[in-house]
Amino acid sequence: MSQISSRPEFDWDKQARSQILSMYFYGYICTQLLGGWLASRYGGIKVWGVSMLICGVSAVLTPLCARTHIYLVYAARVVIGMSTGVTFPSIQAILGHWAPEYEKSKLSALIYTGLPFGSIVTFSISGVLCKYGFDNGWGSIFYLSGLFTFIWAVAWFTLTAETPAQLRWISDRERNFIETSIGKSGAIQLGPIPWLSILKSSPFWAIVVAHFFSAYVFYTLVILLPTFLKESLNFDISQNGLLSSVPFLSEFVTSLFVGYLADTFRIKGWMSTTMVRKTFQVFAFVAPAISMACVGQVTCEYRHLAVVLICITSACTSFSKAGFLVNSLDLAPRYAGILFGIHNTFATVAGMITPVIAGVLTPNRTTEEWGNVFYVCSAGSVVGAILYWFLGDGELQEWAVPSTSTFKNDILTGHTNVAFKTSETQLNTLEMNMRDKSDIKSLPF
């Protein structure tokens, strides 16, 4: 492998570079709601797999686009954003079919460990590839990203299935356990979407607020951390990539036990689902708020302390994986993909305004100005904690319960994936329970 030339290949000004970063979010925000609807309607496995193939192709073509015209780079970034925009709604739709009641937190947390793990790998090797990689260094990042995406897609379509009933590799015992535990709420086909009820739901808006402020902190770390390490703490480029990955390593490690801890509290009866969601999410806000406020006070002289505090911030935010990130599955498992698509749209707005606000706050790029960036994150986290505590809920919502007529139709037309048959007596009992709102929490879905 050869070193890159000392002369930059592209002479793009700051505005052009900012536009390239922004184009991703323009595409990403467009497919959130659409991705949730497609995943709920046609299956998260298919939607996610196809989107990742598109993303891989776009990544491989990015160096060619860059050497042709900058507008083609803009287009590639928009396509990548649109293709990855369906990721999280698809995950929620998949969990709706696969996550048993008392394993939702741990499965969700385990899946979302891919976020910090990807950041660890990317930050760790990108700096090295830029310096020693092929195709002038930077090009190798896109080629390898695309290659790994293709490999992942082949494994994805080979090893996965939309529902337990369709998976070849699963035992009858495990299939019956999952289908019986989930019940009908995640198995019945998607019917009319209760848009008005969703928009009037205060627990849903608690998720929206929590996701927005959590995303603001996340994007501050992902997008701005390398710049902060360079401009405020004076780390050089060889240290920057590795140090930028360390906070995500701490998040990855913490995420491994957060979901297990949350589900243990629920199984043992130590906390209700609502209290688990609120407690974990408030901690995911308050602890980082304190540590980020401290980062704002750290000078270059104690720069390693700043890295430690950022690691604490990142580790504590992982408690969100047992908070708002899984909360859609509690409120409405049938519509979890759609709900996530809506509140992730607001979270994407946070990602779009994060670099803008940081640019306004750091005109001279001084340590004091960078402190203001972290103070804003800290204040937002406090607001998010307060609102989520008072508005959040962890129980199945009335508007998310399938209507009796819809349920009967699914049974008669064979659209359920449940491993057992429901007798007419059970249907009549279900109808009686549905007439009483107080019995909703006792229904088997």
UniProtKB/TrEMBL annotation:
Per the record, the major location class is: membrane
Membrane topology listed for this record: Multi-pass membrane protein
Family matches, as InterPro entries: MFS, MFS_dom, MFS_Na/Anion_cotransporter, MFS_trans_sf
User: Where found, per UniProt?
Assistant: Membrane
Source organism of the structure: Biomphalaria glabrata (Bloodfluke planorb)
Q: Which PROSITE patterns match?
A: MFS
Ordered alphabetically, the record's keywords are: Membrane, Symport, Transmembrane, Transmembrane helix, Transport
Which gene name belongs to this protein? LOC106052737
What is the protein name for this chain?
Sialin-like isoform X3
Q: Which residues cross the membrane?
A: 21-39, 45-66, 78-98, 110-129, 141-159, 204-229, 241-260, 280-298, 305-326, 338-361, 373-391
Offer a single GO CC term for the protein. membrane
Pfam families (alphabetical): MFS_1
The record places domain Major facilitator superfamily (MFS) profile at 1-396
Task: Name its GO BP terms in alphabetical order.
Answer: monoatomic anion transport
Any single GO molecular-function term of the entry would be:
symporter activity
